[in-house]
Records
---
Amino acid sequence: MYFKTSEKHEALRAQIREFAEAEIKPFAFQWDTDNAFPREVIQKMAAKGWLGIPYPKEYGGAGLDIISYAIAVEELARCDGGCGVILSAHVSLGTWPIFAFGNDEQKKKYLPPLCRGEKLGAFGLTEPNAGSDAGGTETTAVLNGDHYILNGEKIFITNGGEADTYVVFAVTTPGIGTKGISAFILEKGMPGFEFGDHYNKLGIRSSATAQLLFNDVKVPKENLLGKEGQGFKIAMATLDGGRIGIAAQALGIAQGAFESAVEYAKDRIQFDKPIAFQQAISFKIADMATKIDSARLLVYRAADLKENHEPYGKESAMAKQYASDIALEVVNDALQIYGGNGYLKGMDVERFYRDAKITTIYEGTNEIQRVVIASHILGKPPKEAASPSAKAAAQNITGARKKMILKEGSAAERVAVLVENLKSDGYDFSVGIPIDTPITKAERVVSAGKGIGSKENMKLAEDLAKAAGAALGSSRPVAETLRYVPLNRYVGMSGQKFMGNLYIACGISGAIQHLKGIKDAATIVAINKNANAKIFKNCDYGIVGDVNEILPLLTQALGTDEKKPAGPMKKIKRITPKKERPSYGFYVCSGCGYEYNASLGDPAADIAPYTLFKDLPEDWVCPECAEAKANFIEA
Ligand code: CAA
């Protein structure tokens, strides 16, 4: 077989290349430096019809094929990796699931503005505990009349905040794994649907990446995409196509770095001739070109299979894995050819070097691509169910905590209950440490997160620190972005670790890196107005309330008198929560006293582990004495 792109493909490439050279290349360094999303350029691309390249004209698309789409992503990424992924996430992830799984009304409503580029699309699958294990989704959607109510969060979402239309995955039937996940179309602006900050990334900095936050978001029933329980398959099928886009992005980055290095190597004279003609460099160039061409063939093959409605899941995973692996090798070689000059900011190879890395991570790490490829070849490996305790442990980043969350009663009553509990745990608030004690040496810390609000409000945290006899700390953004406190006062895995007794988190939502930095605290107290904040799953005591109201009351309750200097720190024993009764309950046979253990199931009767008692077949009998299920008693 002789494979060659058509004249039309190459004409499109030339058109996009000309555009990217004029509209993207000169600005890419600045967008990278400023973490700036190139809105105007995206609008210009929309005007050219490129945001709907592979979709039919009846929906406002350009009616071109998937290879044309791959070429478009490749050519954008050849000048700027960020622009490549903006298009890829929009076309493959934000738009395709609606095109493939939407009903007529959904397609008519959502596709034309997406295909014409009047609206930008995004895809919300990844969560803190559901990355590679996408089936571990924890965002919930509960049907309530005509609406689903969504609660939870998504992280690392490409086009997050900039996009208008989001395909989001949430659990509609808990406890049944991937078959309980459903897909929804969400619109920016729905009440309770908010965004976290634009992440500060290593590369692809012109693309926006943000958290999606759902707090009781009311999503109309009509926005369920496909059927209830089909969400995981929709996500997987979408990613099969999305991986062609990421493969094309990696290919474009490699191509850009390669061309730049070749040009440099031809100009740079050492030992009286261009380094391009020194064998060490010419061999590198030959290897780079071969790798890029091989990747291109894999990418276009996957695109062509998709275009022709043939199976392409294995091929798109191969293309993504190979193109991104060789992109890392090519950008590394390109920078090596540039030598010291390539190590400088402003050189495109320096940016390509950083941009390439993400392509081996997102839309399925390259380890997951190998899982996918291998499963196409070998079939499914036997599954071991993750135990509920392992899943719960993943939530509890700070370990087992008491989790007494105070939501009811007046603010003063909630504060009084907290203070009473802290005192009975052994905290003496007549003594204290200086507010500027280093975090690593402090016995107590009061920390402020972004929820503290304006800089003047830091006074509330400082007053509370003095009243609690504590040092003052903060979350990372408060020190790094807002600069309310010096950098050496932020607490977290990447900052200072707190290993003392009492940690009071004020307006801190609970990023994983922050929680890991306080996991050794004896007692964690959280004050936050968002009842869904992750910190509440990781604290001993929590008050759901506004810091403006709670902090002054707590300061008052702890006493504003001068504190006596505290003696050397004595570590307080961590409060260990009482073992909770398993949610699946205990059922005991009235005949012989056998206790059904849901975590074990009943293998002899083919009952899988984690089968709830209520889900046992009605003809199931006691394995010890053959007593009927109906004669079991809930203990
Ligand atoms: N298409 C359709 N259905 C599929 C499928 C596919 N490609 N892959 C799996 N399924 C179906 C299976 O057939 C199975 O259905 P049945 O139970 O009816 O047989 C069901 O889904 C569950 O499949 P598995 O048991 O194989 O699922 P798993 O939990 O073992 O996971 C996995 C498999 C491949 C590891 C998957 O979890 C995965 O792809 N993980 C990576 C997730 C990922 O790529 N995330 C990227 C997020 S998006 C992003 O990164 C965007 C960006 O920033 C640009």
Note: The chain has 17 helices and 21 strands.
---
Amino acid sequence: MALLQISEPGKSQDPHKKSYYIGIDLGTTNSLVAVMQNSSPVVLKDEFNKELFPSIVTYRENSIEVGENKSNDESIVFRSIKRFIGKNLEDLKKEHFYSPCDYLEENNIVKFKVFEKLITPIEITSEILKHLKNISHETLAGEIAGCVITVPAYFDDAQRQATKDAAALSGLKVLRLLNEPTAAAIAYGLQSKKISKVMVYDLGGGTFDVSILDLNDGIFKVLSTGGDSSLGGDDFDNILADHIEKLCNLNLNEESRHKLYLYVKEIKKSLSDNNAVSLNLSKIGLKNKDISITQKDFNLLINDLVKKTLKISKNVLHDAKLEIDEIDEIILVGGSTRTPYIKQMIESYFNKEPLSNINPDNVVAIGASIQADILSGESDEELLLLDVIPL
Ligand code: ADP
Ligand code: MG
């Protein structure tokens, strides 16, 4: 009897080299990648044991780097490129966008002048995707046969197409784009429970998104979305930096202020796990003062912004024609929801304990990896997923 080895197109010919299907959370502030291994999702780490990769792309004369940029050399640094993708100049001007270099528009496409070359947001985004693909390739030691990439529920056709174009440029085959809130609901396995109305509250670094989903027999309908594209953890950092500057009577130049801003991020994060944190200003080259910041201080500082997010959430609920008590679950997504005060405020405002046991930094990538696994045909679970968005 002759055995024929048949391999599907796109799948590896080499029987020893496994094919992997990855899930990518392409974030405004951070991006990450996850994969299903032995039926559980795993977030992949790079050689430095990092799993959250700042969505920052640095161009130098002869090289391109993805990640935090610590050097002060001649370079052009793109942050939050997700805000540019699939948009023309007219759209961007409405949003008071920031560009690190000169730019122009050709055939409705924004192009940045980077060392005599013209580079598009799609190309810059493809560098982030390439980085994630390389990390996956190295840690899994296999072929990356396909991926699911998440996008905000409010992304329009042009933004979705541009994301796919960036993936193609990076050499990734996109099985599907998935809405970020839907990915979060999948990560919690809500599609297989008798749960139908879900609110996804996503507070990241620079953006706040809230969505109401209706899960019904494998059809995920986004009933309504809303948010604020310039509200997030960066604002908390600025408010805390202002507070410390005043409290310590500091009069900082631009460089020291930037150092304080970066230091304050650490303080903010440790305030998520501690009741108080004492300042160590000598860490950023300033004279130390005997001052500590308490969780209570921080809560007061961010109170107005947190209330603003709750009001927006209520309006989005209203747009979906739902009452608070009709929501079955609330899911917390985004690094900023690790601030305990935010969780508390959501719980008391909606009178329901939100789901937060999956790390809110990872939950979207995890959902994407589950979906990628299902679409690859290698999973036992069948999830006919129709991800419907409102016009
Ligand atoms: P995005 O989806 O926009 O890429 P993320 O979900 O990665 O953003 O969130 C990044 C934000 O989360 C940053 O403002 C960061 O400071 C904040 N953050 C991360 N960890 C914590 C923490 N432990 N406590 C409070 N904020 C945090
Ligand atoms: Mg995000």
Note: The two ends are 57 Å apart (CA to CA).
